[in-house]
Amino acid sequence: MTATTLSSLTAMTTGFAVGDFLIYEDISVAAASKVKKIALPYLSAALRVGRVSTEASSATPTINTDLVDAHSITALGTAVTSMTTNLSGTPVDFQELKIRFLDDGTNRAIAWGASFEATGVALPGTTTANKVLTVSFIYDIISAKWGCVASVEEA
């Protein structure tokens, strides 16, 4: 367990995380009055907000999985020739990645490439005009691929 200053609680707080629990105390209080407190569950601000990248349109979208957990393509104006070409990062086992597509009003083809595979859910091959398509993946260190676990299109 590592002591950490937790500025999200107060500047006068110290504590440590144990699994999903955060144990902390107010260090501005006299030692005789200190009471340990537990906050459930503890999630860092980065995990609650998410790490998202966005681009308007690209035949080879750029996603760095070391920096983001989600990528949004907001006005896809061309067919995606490869989701793998500009995919970078060193993912860890069970890391999640979500990709959201919105085309420019025309159905657009999506070619996934070698870094993606269907894992219980088929990889979508096209967008539907003016409908948001969200695809979720979990990284599998055994196959060294992003496995598609969900694909949902706006109604």
Question: Can you tell me about this structure?
Answer:
The chain has 155 residues and is mainly beta. The chain has two domains: 43 residues, no CATH class; 104 residues, Jelly Rolls (Sandwich). It is built from one helix and twelve strands, in the order E-E-E-E-H-E-E-E-E-E-E-E-E. A six-stranded mixed beta sheet has the order 5-7-9-11-12-10, with no helix packed on it. It has a four-stranded antiparallel beta sheet with strand order 1-2-3-4, with no helix packed on it. A two-stranded parallel ribbon has the order 6-8. Strand 2 and strand 3 form a beta hairpin. The longest helix has 5 residues. It is globular. The termini are far apart. The N terminus is likely disordered.
